[in-house]
């Protein structure tokens, strides 16, 4: 049985055609960084210490309720990958542990769209659930978007922000992309869309045309595709089969509550993660781990819709943000949001400092700045304005 999308897209025909064209030009959306089990074991993150106690409706139970492709577990290619993962159970455990802060939320997004639960496991195959993963081909993030594909899907890249590393934005883009391809080209066939996610729609469409010309079936399982793509969907089915029955496969999954480990804080003004951490009593390393897209440690409305914080800190963070304060910012600096027409010279003149000081304080090698970027102005000079 082939699972097909049942939800109509709200994207207009003209915009769909334009997006499809851009994605074809961009090429493959993702290429797995390396084989999943070859990824190095990463250091433990802050969420490893979270006291998340299992509940009757834990994350894995919810995921099992949404699995829809279990009949594929008997396919020969899937069986080979099941045996591979069974021989390396520590890798499965490490990767699922790394998924702790993201798993419940991603499952909820997949469930809300009526998609099979297996889709929530794509980051397992793509990035081993490392939100900062980068492949030698240029793909990045949990969902391993190539630059051109990310651009076509609205995942902006500019100084201090890479939308492909933004778990919230990239998850939305990945699910949109998978559904859009399935509905535009494959009559809702999600397995073909997943193959296109890995190899590019052009590769899959050419393989289908060739199969049809030979009088052969044109579903995923009968196509002649690049080896990585031939193994891509079986890998996904294999890990789903193991999660469906972990004990039978010798795997002990970490307990993860069926509630998101993070909360989304709207970005309606420039936010410095260090300042936010100091005001709310959150570790800066925690905020950095939850917001890997913010490489310069700050967020502003022109790039980021939300900043993620540990769920238990949501109320205190919102309270701090809504409380006026005249306290100086940590590090003795004031923030300046770059506006259209700004230059380093004009900003330095406005605050009564030198261009050299402004460059040094912000780690700039030249004079190029971008609208929407946040610069720090040394506070020691502010009194002289």
TrEMBL record:
Belongs to the transglycosylase Slt family. Keywords: Signal. InterPro entries: LysM (IPR018392), LysM_dom_sf (IPR036779), Lysozyme-like_dom_sf (IPR023346), Transglyc_AS (IPR000189), Transglycosylase_SLT_dom_1 (IPR008258). This is Transglycosylase SLT domain-containing protein. Residues 1-32 form the signal peptide. Residues 334-377 form the LysM domain.
């Amino acid at each position: 049985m082939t699972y097909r999308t049942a939800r109509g897209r709200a994207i207009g025909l003209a915009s769909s055609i334009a997006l499809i064209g851009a994605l074809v030009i961009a090429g493959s959306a993702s290429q797995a960084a390396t084989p999943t089990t070859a990824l190095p074991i990463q250091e433990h993150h802050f969420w490893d210490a979270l006291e998340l106690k299992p509940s009757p409706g834990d994350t894995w139970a919810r995921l099992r309720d949404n699995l829809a492709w279990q009949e594929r577990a008997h396919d020969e290619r899937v069986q080979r990958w099941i045996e591979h993962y069974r021989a390396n159970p520590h890798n499965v455990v490490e990767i699922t542990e790394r998924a702790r802060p993201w798993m419940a939320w991603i499952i909820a997004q997949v469930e809300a769209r009526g998609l099979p639960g297996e889709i929530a496991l794509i980051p397992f195959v793509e990035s081993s659930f490392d939100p900062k993963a980068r492949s030698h081909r240029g793909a990045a993030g949990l969902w391993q978007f190539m630059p051109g594909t990310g651009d076509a899907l609205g995942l902006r890249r500019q100084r201090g922000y890479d939308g492909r590393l933004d778990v919230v934005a990239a998850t939305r883009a990945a699910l949109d992309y998978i559904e859009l391809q399935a509905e535009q080209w494959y009559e809702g066939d999600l397995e073909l869309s997943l193959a296109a996610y890995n190899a590019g729609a052009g590769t899959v469409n050419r393989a289908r045309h060739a199969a049809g010309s030979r009088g052969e079936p044109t579903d995923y399982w009968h196509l002649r595709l690049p080896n990585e793509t031939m193994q891509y969907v079986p890998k996904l089915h294999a890990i789903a089969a193991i999660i469906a029955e972990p004990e039978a496969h010798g795997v002990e999954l970490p307990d993860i509550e069926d509630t998101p480990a993070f909360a989304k804080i709207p970005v309606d003004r420039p936010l410095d993660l260090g300042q936010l951490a100091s005001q709310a009593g959150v570790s800066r390393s925690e905020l950095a781990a939850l917001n890997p897209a913010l490489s310069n440690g700050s967020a502003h409305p022109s790039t980021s819709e939300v900043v993620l914080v540990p769920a238990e800190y949501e109320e205190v963070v919102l309270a701090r943000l809504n409380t006026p304060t005249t306290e100086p910012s940590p590090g003795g600096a004031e923030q300046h949001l770059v506006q259209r027409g700004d230059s380093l010279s004009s900003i330095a003149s406005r605050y009564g400092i030198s261009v050299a000081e402004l460059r040094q304080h912000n780690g700039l090698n030249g004079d190029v700045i971008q609208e929407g970027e946040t610069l720090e102005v040394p506070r020691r000079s502010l009194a002289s304005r």
